[in-house]
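Translate structure to sequence.
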């Protein structure tokens, strides 16, 4: 028996793992599929990631703050003992990683529609992710390299732009006679309508170019992409059913606080123990009284009051019954939609770009359209005219200022992650974001500086790619204060 065991050991050693037992090859499951089976998963992963980004940013942008003001990350920006940062892995595994694999399968069968859609989704995922982390591997991503080099953010942006243009080109070349079918069963955003995917790609390009227009590209370019996006535009909206019987089918912002068994508990929203900040409520009272949108975004508390507190302070001796309930608003129901770029955002991109391009009339018309679109979304169009004539709104193109545009965009993009990018581009300026104040309870080591990014995932990058982490200086406790590329170069 001993001789047999020794012989078996030596046979294993001499043959090696690859010849004796390939542990990377599944013996039970086929590792190949077709792109139509992957697309639904990638789109749902995008929705999941979008929620997670919004939930992270909502506290930095002061839409909300926690009830007690002591949460390490949301109130104190304290990542020193965090165990994981899931946003990193959601890009590389859930969304872009699966989109990349889908593209590979689509190329093998030359399905241009799936290639184009895959490129657009991969681009969207990397763009939104780099705006939370900064430098990240993109050139060596998905190559099998275990410790890839982190590309600078300008390289990431250039690669994202390339993917979007390649995606548009693939969609132009699509042929329904030879491409694999893509319909409502596969495509939960546009039902296989490639013209709408083209519009989405152009909207992403408009957003991307806006981030750098003041120092790298041009506002003319932003407006060109806005115009292209408006052709055949339909919101990229991921819908949830109203009668869901599983956490897998509920919006993660909802009151049931879904916790599907695909991740750690960090995904659960904290709206049940959060309240509005003074900054948000100041925005909601620009006219001198409550903005009618407030009642559509939230539910009145027990005492039907709408109190607020400074960011990270906590409610102290105040009664929670005097604060709005954050659930069951337009964006915070179990069946609320996830919208990756809203109608309103596209209008406000146009307004900001036109304003900086000295075309105040176009800026004003887009500004009014953005406000109007938000009222229509929330089902309160009947109150629009009164609001437009109030002191909350610039009354002419000559009166329009950048604060008018950005404050209305802030309100229209309630709980959306893109707001954090806007705030950092404008360096958290309180003459743009009116009455914005530095949170009271953040760590003293930050010395009054604003958060600019979140750290990389400790469970992957700090363990498996330590040389790159050291090179970047990302172990430093103050790393999160380092501005991203477009913020450091911004002249706004």
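Result:
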């Amino acid at each position: 028996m001993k001789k047999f065991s020794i012989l078996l050991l030596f046979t294993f050693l001499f043959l090696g793992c690859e010849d004796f037992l390939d542990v990377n090859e599944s013996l039970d499951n086929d590792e190949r599929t077709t792109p139509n089976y992957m697309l639904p998963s990638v789109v749902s992963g995008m929705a999941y990631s979008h929620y997670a980004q919004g939930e992270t940013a909502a506290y930095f942008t002061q839409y909300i703050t926690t009830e007690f003001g002591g949460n390490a990350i949301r109130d104190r920006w304290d990542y020193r003992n965090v165990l994981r940062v899931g946003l990193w892995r959601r890009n590389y595994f859930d969304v872009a990683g699966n989109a990349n694999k889908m593209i590979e399968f689509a190329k093998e069968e030359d399905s241009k529609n799936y290639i184009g859609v895959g490129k657009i989704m991969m681009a969207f995922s990397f763009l939104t992710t780099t705006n939370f982390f900064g430098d990240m591997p993109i050139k060596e991503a998905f190559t099998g390299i275990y410790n890839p080099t982190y590309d600078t953010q300008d390289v990431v942006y250039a690669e994202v732009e390339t993917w979007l243009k390649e995606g548009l080109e693939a969609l132009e070349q699509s042929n329904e006679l030879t491409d694999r079918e893509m319909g409502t069963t596969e495509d939960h955003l546009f039902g296989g309508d490639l013209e709408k995917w083209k519009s989405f790609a152009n909207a992403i390009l408009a957003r991307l170019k806006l981030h750098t227009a003041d120092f790298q590209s041009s506002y003319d370019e932003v407006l060109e992409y806005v115009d292209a996006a408006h052709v055949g535009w339909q919101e990229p909206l991921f819908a949830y059913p109203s009668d869901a019987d599983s956490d897998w089918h509920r919006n993660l912002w909802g009151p049931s606080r879904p916790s599907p068994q695909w991740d750690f508990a960090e995904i659960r929203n904290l709206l049940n123990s959060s309240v509005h900040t003074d900054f948000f409520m100041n925005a909601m009272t620009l006219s001198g009284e409550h903005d009618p949108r407030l009642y559509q975004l939230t539910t009145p508390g027990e005492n039907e009051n709408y109190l607020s507190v400074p960011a990270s302070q906590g409610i102290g001796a105040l009664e929670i019954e005097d604060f709005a309930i954050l659930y069951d608003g337009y964006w915070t129901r179990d069946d609320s939609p996830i919208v990756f770029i809203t109608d309103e955002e596209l209008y406000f991109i146009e307004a900001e770009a036109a304003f900086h391009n000295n075309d105040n009339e176009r800026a004003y018309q887009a500004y009014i359209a953005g406000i109007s679109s938000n009222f229509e979304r929330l089902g309160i169009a009947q109150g629009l005219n009164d609001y437009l004539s109030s002191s909350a709104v610039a009354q002419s193109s000559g009166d329009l200022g950048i604060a008018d545009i950005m404050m209305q965009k802030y309100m229209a993009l309630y709980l959306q992650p893109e707001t954090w990018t806007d705030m950092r581009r404008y360096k958290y300026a309180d003459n743009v974001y009116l009455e914005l104040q530095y949170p009271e309870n953040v760590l003293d080591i930050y010395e009054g500086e604003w958060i600019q990014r979140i750290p990389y995932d400790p469970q992957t990058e700090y363990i498996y790619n330590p040389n790159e982490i050291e090179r970047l200086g990302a172990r430093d406790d103050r790393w999160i204060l380092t501005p991203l590329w477009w913020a450091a170069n911004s002249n706004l």
